[in-house]
């Protein structure tokens, strides 16, 4: 059961890298009790937006807040937010358990959390195997377990389904659904429309650093379906969506 969840709020966020404007006044929200999908073609600014939310990048203007506070101002960030953006650095010679123990201590989480998160993500049987022998799906589960160590009320995940086989994808879908149903806030970025359409309650469609649609999945998708709506909103080609 996640801790008290908070609404994620992004307002008028701008960010540039040299001459490239990655975010152009981006605004959206992700409330508790729902899985919110941040969708967009590659290069639309999804990862940059999440990095600004987590204090890993500084926006030129605008605000990105969790429960009305910037990430850096949260009194105990590890219990408020769990995140998986880039793949967590994991030494291939370490076991999954050792990896989690190191991160648990850094987060100040109680000792029991290592075993609890291993159970939550289905890695208990592989906990004492070296990470170098983990499959892509097992590494994804380890990333998620690391994000869960503080039992956060908010989960922020960048492309969590990449590299998962069908069984792993179905498991992830059920896990995120259960987390939201328990009152947690779940914000997931993706460009895999078929999968995200089975997972989320709400969608934010991004294109060129802006939100071009936001709302309940059924409302944004309409009668045509999510893929058709997405292509119309972003002008993306099928190749861009699948890439």
From TrEMBL:
Gene Ontology molecular function: any one: ATP binding
Annotated signal peptide: none
Pfam families: ABC_tran
InterPro entries, per the entry: AAA+_ATPase (IPR003593), ABC_transporter-like_ATP-bd (IPR003439), P-loop_NTPase (IPR027417)
Sequence ranges assigned to domain ABC transporter in this UniProt record: 8-233
Keywords annotated in UniProt: ATP-binding, Nucleotide-binding, Transport
Protein family: Belongs to the ABC transporter superfamily.
Protein name according to UniProt: ABC-2 type transport system ATP-binding protein
């Amino acid at each position: 059961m996640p801790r008290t969840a908070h609404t994620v709020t992004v307002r008028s966020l701008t960010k540039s890298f040299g001459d490239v404007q990655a975010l152009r006044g981006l605004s959206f929200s992700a409330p508790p009790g729902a899985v919110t999908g941040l969708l967009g073609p590659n290069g639309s600014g999804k990862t940059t937006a999440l990095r600004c939310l987590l204090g890993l990048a500084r926006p030129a203007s605008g605000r990105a807040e969790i429960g009305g506070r910037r990430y850096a101002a949260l009194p105990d960030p590890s219990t408020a937010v769990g995140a998986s953006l880039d793949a967590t650095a994991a030494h291939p010679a370490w076991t999954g358990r050792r990896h989690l123990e190191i991160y648990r201590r850094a987060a100040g989480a109680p000792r029991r959390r290592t075993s609890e998160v291993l159970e939550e993500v289905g890695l208990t049987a592989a906990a004492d195997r070296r990470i170098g022998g983990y499959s892509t799906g097992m590494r994804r589960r380890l990333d998620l377990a690391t994000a869960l160590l503080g039992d956060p009320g908010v989960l922020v995940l960048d492309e969590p389904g990449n590299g998962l086989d069908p069984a792993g994808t179905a498991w992830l879908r059920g896990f995120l659904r259960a987390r939201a149903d328990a009152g947690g806030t779940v914000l997931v970025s993706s460009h895999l429309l078929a999968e995200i359409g089975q997972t989320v309650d709400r969608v934010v469609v991004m294109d060129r650093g802006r939100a071009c649609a936001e709302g309940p999945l059924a409302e944004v998708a309409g009668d045509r379906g999510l893929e058709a709506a997405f292509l119309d909103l972003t002008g993306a080609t099928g190749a861009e969506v699948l890439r």
